[in-house]
Amino acid sequence: MSPLPATQLRVLMHRVGRGEHARSIRRVFPFDCQRGVFNELHTAYLDNEHGLASLNAQKAVLSDLRFFETWAAMRKKRDAAWIAPAHRAAANQVPITEREVKNFANWCQRNAASLEEEIETGDSKVTRLPGKDVVGTQFRNRRLRNASKYLQWLATSLATMDEGDVEEVSLVEVRRRLIDRWFKKRLLPDVKAAPPRSLHAEQALTFHKLLNDPLIFPATAIGTRDKLILQLLDQGLRAGELLKLKVTGVDGVYRIDSDRVIGVVKIVRSPNDIDDERRHEPSVKTRPGTLPIPRRLALDLIEYVTGPRRDAIDARADGYETPYLFVSHHGKQHTGHPISQRNLNRLVAKLQRCTGLPETLTPHVLRHTHLTDMYDQLRKKGRTSADIRDALIDRGRWAPNSSMPALYTGRSLMREASEYVEDRDSRLPRCHGGGEAAPARRQPHLGREEAPHAHR
Description:
By secondary structure, the protein is mainly α. Among the domains are: 39-185, no CATH class; 206-355, Intergrase catalytic core (hpI Integrase, Chain A), CATH 1.10.443.10. It has 17 helices and six strands. The strands form two sheets. The protein has a three-stranded antiparallel β-sheet. Strand 2 and strand 3 form a beta hairpin. The radius of gyration is 30 Å and the shape is globular. The protein starts with 6 loop residues before the first strand and ends in a 29-residue tail after the last helix.
C-alpha cells in the first residue's frame, strides 16, 4: 500500500436543537480514504484555529494541509528513519528544520497532482519546474502560511510541559518563533492582482435599460426576484453579502434626521450560522454594517417579501421559514429554500448574452462599477482625497487602514492620467511626416581636414 495520504474533504451537517428549532451547521472533516477514518489532528487544528471561519476558508486550509502531508509522506517513503513533525512536537522537539522548510517551499510551487506523480519516480529535490505545473505566487504563499500556522500549533499544543515551569514554556515559544521565522524567509512578494473591470458609461446605461425590459424580467415571482437581486448588486454589495441578507435586515423607513427617512439593508457577518441550511454557506468577507440604498428599492424589497416570497414560503414542503431574503420559486424540493451562489451566477450569466454587455460580467464587476462611479461623483463635487477615502471605506465596509479604496479608483485615476498626457501632447511640437516640410536640421561641424572644399 502506498504511504501517500488519499485525503478527501467531507462536509457533514451537524444537527443541533430539537423539534421545530432543530437546525444544521456545517463541519468540514479531512477523511483518510486508505484507513477509513477521519484525520483527528487536522480536525482538532481546524476547530481550534479556524472554527469560526467560512466553509470555503476551512476547505482551503485543509487543502493546504493535505499538500503538506503529501510532502511529509514523500520524505517518509524515501527515508524510513525520517520522523514526522507531529511525533517531533510530541517529543518536545522542533517539528521541522530550516532545511526542510526550504525544501517544502520549493515543492509549494508545484501543482498538487504533479507532486503526487513525481513522488513515485522523481527525486526528493526539485530539479525542474515545467511551466504547466507551476502555481501562482499567491497560492504558493498561502500554502506556506497555512503550513507554518499548523506547525506552530503542533509545537505549542503537543508539547509536554509544566505550565508553571518558566524555562519549559520559554523553550516552546522559541520553537514556535523559529518556525514562524523560517517560513517567512521563504515567502515571495505577492503579485498585485489586476482590479476587476467595471462597466464603462455606455455599458452601465445598457445594464439599467435591461433591468426595465419586461421580456428579460417579466412581472413574475422569479422575474421580480432576479431584478431586485441585480439592483442590489448594483448598489455595491458582494455576492456573499446579498445571499446572507435577512428579511429583518430590510428597512424602508430608517430615520437619519427628524424629517428624513431612507432605505437601508443590514449586512451581518455570521459564519457557520445554524439558520443557514445551505450546504455551501455563502461568506461575508467585509465588516458588517448598515448600507443605505434608494428608498424605492427598499420598498420594492418589502413588497417582494410580503408577496412572492410569502407564497414560496407557504408552499415549502417542510413548513420551515428561512430567515434569508431571496428564495427559490420553482421545484418541489427547492421552493422556499434560500438561493445558492450557483443560482446567483446563473442569473448574472443570462445578461452576458445581451448585446452591449461584456461576457466577463460578474457580481463583483457590478460592485466595482458602483464604487468607481461613487469616486467619480465625489471628485466632481470637490471632495478631498481623505473625504473620498473615508466614504469609500464606509461604503465598501473595509477596515479603516485598508488599501482597497486605491484598488477601486483605478479607472478614474487612469482617466485623469490619460487626460493629462493628451493635454501635454497637444502642447508639445508635433513630429512632421508625410508631405509636410520638415524643419531644417543643424549641420554637424566639420573640421578643416574633413571639409570637402577647404581653401588651401
